[in-house]
Amino acid sequence: MNAVITGASKGIGKAIAEKLAREGFNVAICARNAAPLEQAVTDIQAQNPQATVLSMPADMGKKEDVLAFAAKIKSVFPSVDILVNNAGFFVPGSLDEQEDGLLESMMAANVYSAYHLTRQLLPAMKALRKGHIFNLCSTASYKAYPNGGAYSITKFALLGFSRNLREELKQHNVKVTSLSPGPTLTASWDGFDAPPGRMMEPEDIANLLWAAYTLSAQAVVEEVLMRPMLGDIQ
């Protein structure tokens, strides 16, 4: 069994990769920075020494990097059972004050990366009539927040991509799930002074993904909203 997780050197992506390795999957991961990626490989491998852990430094905001990562995956894995489109970044700010070009770069990383990688890996899934695609959306995909700016636009777009993909792939027996977590204890929240236990853990999202994946073949979780017990952090 083979899984692909983008943006997996830390946070939610890494937690998912570790979970899938423990469950017996080989995993392919990517991230922009080589050093954290190498450490992630070591940590993931420790979860299952028998697993193949394929890694590649890649800026998923660049189409050429996405295509190179896809080519490397296909050269090693004959098929992909789980694809997790998790790569992306967050910059808060109002639309009229954010720097010029931020929307374009954020769309490339948060949306186009999922679009291009999915297109590369879908033909084999459709041919085999199996596979599960998870798109990491956000509560910002459903609700506009002050200072959501360009980020919120990209997350609304990613949810739209995911919903469209779900409709297209029903007949091909390929599942599509949108996971939309709220505040989660990751690097995106560095510098924010939250009370202990106020945020969700990355492992919460990994465990929910696994629960959705292990349903019967005739069942699919289309969309999930996850929030901390006390709700959003304003």
UniProtKB/TrEMBL annotation:
Family matches, as PROSITE patterns: ADH_SHORT
Domain of life: Bacteria
Gene3D superfamilies cross-referenced by the UniProt entry: NAD(P)-binding Rossmann-like Domain
Protein's UniProt name: SDR family NAD(P)-dependent oxidoreductase
CDD domains: SDR_c
Organism: Chitinophaga oryziterrae
UniProt xrefs under Pfam families: adh_short
Family: Belongs to the short-chain dehydrogenases/reductases (SDR) family.
GO molecular function: oxidoreductase activity
A single Gene Ontology CC term: membrane
Record's keyword terms, sorted: Oxidoreductase
KW Oxidoreductase (keyword) present: yes
